[in-house]
Design a protein that fits this description.
The chain is built from ten helices and 13 strands. By secondary structure, the chain is an alpha/beta fold. It has a single domain, classed as Aldolase class I (TIM Barrel, Alpha-Beta Barrel). Strands 1, 2, 3, 4, 5, 8, 9, 10, 11, 12 and 13 form an eleven-stranded mixed sheet that branches. Strands 6-7 form a two-stranded antiparallel sheet. Strand 11, helix 7 and strand 12 form a beta-alpha-beta unit. The structure holds ligand PBG and zinc ion.
C-alpha cells in the first residue's frame, strides 16, 4: 500500500476533495446590536447588526465563500412568532441588504419560530396528552408564512428546521401558490435532538422556557427513523436534504446520500465550540482538526457543508494551493 502513499503520487490518488463551493457560512443578524457582538459560547463568531451584514457577506464573497445561512434575532418575541413573517423583520431586511450589497451570493434562510417565540419552541404550543407541547398542524401554516416572507424578500433557498411533520409539503405548496416556484427548499430533514446545539441557543437566544425538543427532533439512537425523515421530506418536494449534527452522525450521512438528492451536513455550534475550545487551550492543531472534520464529512457523502469554520477553511484551502 505504501507505493500509493509516496509524496508525488499521493495527491493523484486522493479520493475526496474539499472546495470552497462546498461551504456555507451561518450568520446571525441581531436587530438591536449596533456593532458586531462576540458570541461568548462560540469564540470567533459574532452577531451582526443589519448595518454590517452587507459588508460582512461581501468580505466572505471576496475570500470565495459565496453561500450563507441566515438566523435572525428579533427585538420582539411573542407566542405566535409574528416577527418571523414581518415583511420588515430583521431577517427580511437582512436578505434585501445582502442581495443589494453583495449580489451573487446564495442566500439561504433558516425557517423556524424558536428565535421569535417567547416560549422558545419551534412553532405554536398547546396542551397535549403529556402537558404543553409543540402542536404540529397548527404550526404548519406559520412556517409556510415565514418561508413565503423570506422568498418575498429575495431568499434563494429556504431551510425549514422545525422538524414538523408535513413542513416541506406545506412550504412547497405555499411558495408555489404565491408564485415562488423558483425558490428552493433545503430541508433540515434529518435533525437529531442533540445536546450539541447548546452554544447556538445562547448565540441565537432561542433556548426554550419549558420541556425540550425531544418530542419533535429525532433521538440520537434512531437510524431507521432518521432515514424515514429524509425520505418523507424528499417525497414532499425538498430539493436538498440535510443531516444535523455532522461528525457524530456520519453513518446517517452515508445512508441519506443513497436517496439520490444533494445532501447538506450541518457542523453545528457544539462541534465548533469543542474544536475551538481545545484549540484556544493549545491542546489540538485547529487547522488540522478542522480540515480533517470537513474532509470526513465529504467522505461520508456530504455535498454542502454548513460550518462556522467556512471562512477559516477558505483561507486554509488557499494555503494548500
Ligand atoms: C432552529 C435551529 C437550531 C439550529 C439550527 N436551527 C437550534 C435548535 O434546533 O435547537 C442549531 C444550529 C447549531 O447548533 O449550530 N430550530
Ligand atoms: Zn427552531
Amino acid at each position: 500500500m505504501r507505493r500509493l502513499r509516496g509524496r508525488l503520487i499521493q495527491p493523484y490518488v486522493k479520493e475526496h476533495h474539499l472546495r470552497k463551493t462546498d461551504l456555507v457560512m451561518p450568520l446571525f443578524i441581531d436587530e438591536v446590536a449596533d456593532h458586531p457582538t462576540p458570541i461568548p459560547t462560540m469564540p470567533g463568531q459574532f452577531r451582526y447588526p443589519l448595518t454590517r451584514i452587507g459588508p460582512a457577506v461581501r468580505k466572505l464573497q471576496e475570500i470565495g465563500i459565496g453561500a450563507v445561512l441566515l438566523f435572525g434575532i428579533p427585538v420582539h418575541k411573542d407566542p405566535e412568532a409574528s416577527e418571523a413573517y414581518n415583511p420588515d423583520g430583521v431577517i427580511q431586511q437582512a436578505i434585501k441588504r445582502i442581495k443589494s450589497e453583495a449580489p451573487g451570493v446564495l442566500v439561504i434562510t433558516d425557517v423556524c419560530a424558536c428565535e421569535y417565540t417567547d416560549h422558545g419552541h419551534c412553532g405554536i404550543i398547546g396542551e397535549g396528552p403529556c402537558g404543553m407541547d409543540l402542536q404540529n398542524d397548527p404550526s404548519l401554516e406559520l412556517v409556510a408564512k415565514i418561508a413565503v416572507s423570506h422568498a418575498q424578500a429575495g431568499a434563494d433557498l429556504v431551510a425549514p428546521s422545525c422538524m414538523l411533520d408535513g413542513m416541506v409539503g406545506a412550504i412547497r405548496t405555499a411558495l408555489d401558490v404565491e408564485g415562488f416556484q423558483e425558490t428552493g427548499i433545503i430541508s433540515y430533514s434529518t435533525k437529531f435532538a442533540s445536546a450539541l446545539y447548546g452554544p447556538f441557543r445562547e448565540a441565537a437566544d432561542s433556548g426554550y422556557s419549558f420541556g425540550d425538543r425531544s418530542t419533535y427532533q429525532i433521538h440520537p439512537a434512531n437510524a431507521r427513523e432518521a432515514l424515514r425523515e429524509s425520505e418523507d421530506d424528499a417525497l414532499e418536494g425538498a430539493d436538498i436534504l440535510m443531516v444535523k449534527p455532522g461528525g457524530f452522525y456520519l453513518d446517517i450521512v452515508a445512508a441519506v446520500r443513497e436517496l439520490g438528492f444533494p445532501v447538506a451536513v450541518f457542523q453545528v455550534s457544539g462541534e465548533y465550540a469543542m474544536i475551538r475550545a481545545a484549540a484556544m487551550n493549545g491542546w489540538i492543531n485547529e487547522k488540522a482538526v478542522v480540515m480533517e472534520s470537513l474532509i470526513c464529512l465529504k467522505r461520508a457523502g456530504a455535498d454542502l457543508i454548513i460550518t462556522y469554520y467556512a471562512a477559516d477553511a477558505a483561507g486554509w484551502l488557499d494555503e494548500e494551493q
